[in-house]
Amino acid sequence: MSLTRRALSRLLLATGGGVLLLLLTRPRTVAPLPTAPLTVLAALGEMSLIPRAAWEATPPNHNARGERGLYDARRNPAGWLRYPEPLSEVLTTLVVHHSALPVGDGPREIQRKHMEQRGFADIAYHFVIDPAGQLYEGRELGVRGAHTAGHNTGTVGVVLLGNFEIEKPQSAPMETLERLARTLQEQYAITHLAGHRDFMPGETVCPGQSLAPRLPELAARLGLEFGIGGYRPPP
Ligand SMILES: [Zn+2]
Question: Which fold has domain 46-226?
Answer without folding.
Answer: Lysozyme-like (3.40.80)
